[in-house]
Amino acid sequence: MRATILAIPLLSAICQISFGSECVLEGGEVTLYGSINKETFPGAPNYESVEMSDEAESVQILKANKEICVTGTYPDSEQSFKLTNLSKFHLVFDTPYSIKDDAAAENFIVTGHIYSAVTGHHHTPAILEVSRVETASGNVSKKDKVTDAGKIAMKANQGMGGTHSNAKSTTNSTTVPDYCEGFSSEACSRIRAVVEANIRPSYCLDGNVITNSAPNMTSEQLQICNTIAERTYANAVDQRISDARAAVKESWTQYQGIITTIDTGYRCDVINAMSANLAITKIQEFMDDEKAKYGLIGDVNTSIETATTDAVHASKAEVENGACKRITPAWRGKIRALVSDLMPRP
């Protein structure tokens, strides 16, 4: 059945969608590295010029050491968007945040949830609702830098997105990493320096499981090797998941093209609504099979509903551009045969 479907030429245009593991879904948690500085922008009423009597708004801006992109869907129109080449982020805090003037050049590690700007008070294309901050040098931030305490997490997590109204505020954190638990501040600094360097020391046993009773190793060395091993494994798992998502979404492109073709046939009165719905439902079953094949059952980042919506939007665009006037008898015959093949059998 599936081979028959894929052999049919897709005569309508397929919506070109960018899928990239380097992008963060809006609402996802990220960890970024860079400098934080206070910058002043024009605010109300016109958000154009302080010199022209707009209110001055001073905010903290993170200049990250790498660019990222953010994808999501506008809640009012359900249209997808992609913000690219982002390196500056307006930081939003639950509680007032201040930084010493001589600390502005320091490298900071900032973790938070990322969103696209929605009001004139947001002064970069994407904002970061901060949950944790510390200095990359490993020094715990002082009270005059960040208020409130909690656990520091040193990994990026591209979670499920959301809108600003649904965003849940989290607590700022300045405490030491979990892997420093039970060690003195001096020992923690030494452990952190090695772990954050992302270089596996020679005393870590390649190919062997590190245990708490490994011979000729200090407790600090054991902690370093265990932490690096855990991170390496977690990164490998994240990479496998990312690769699987990319493979599924690439495979889905052909299915999206078929959905676009079917929906165009319905909009151009070649097939009726019931036939179109049944056929698209069958295609969605094939897409679900792809998710299962790659071990992504239940993965919210590979959404069949979103992929279907994108395909339907492509169909709408095709019809608005005169697709129905260009339909040939051969095209009508092929679309009816395609839909017939997808109909459930008694």
Descriptive report:
Mean pLDDT is 74; it is low at 1-21 and 138-174. With 346 residues, the chain is of the alpha/beta class. The protein is built from 6 helices and 6 strands. A hairpin with a 6-residue loop joins strand 3 (56-73) and strand 4. The chain is flat. It starts with a helix and ends with a helix.
Strand order of the largest sheet: 2-3-4-6-5
- What separation lies between the terminal Cα atoms? 16 Å
Mean pLDDT: 74
Low-confidence stretches: 1-21, 138-174
Q: Helical region count?
A: 6
Helical amount among residues, as a percent range?
Answer: 25-40%
Order of helices and strands: HEEEEEEHHHHH
What does the main sheet amount to?
A: 5 strands, mixed, barrel
Radius of gyration: 26 Å
Structural class estimated from helices and strands: alpha/beta
| Strand fraction | 15-25%
How many β-strand stretches? 6
Shape: flat
Secondary structure: elements and pairs:
Blueprint: H1 2-7, E1 23-25, E2 29-42, E3 56-73, E4 80-92, E5 108-116, E6 126-135, H2 185-196, H3 219-267, H4 273-293, H5 304-320, H6 329-342
Parallel strand pairs: 1-3, 4-6
Antiparallel strand pairs: 2-3, 2-5, 3-4, 5-6
Helix pairs in contact: 2-3, 3-4, 3-5
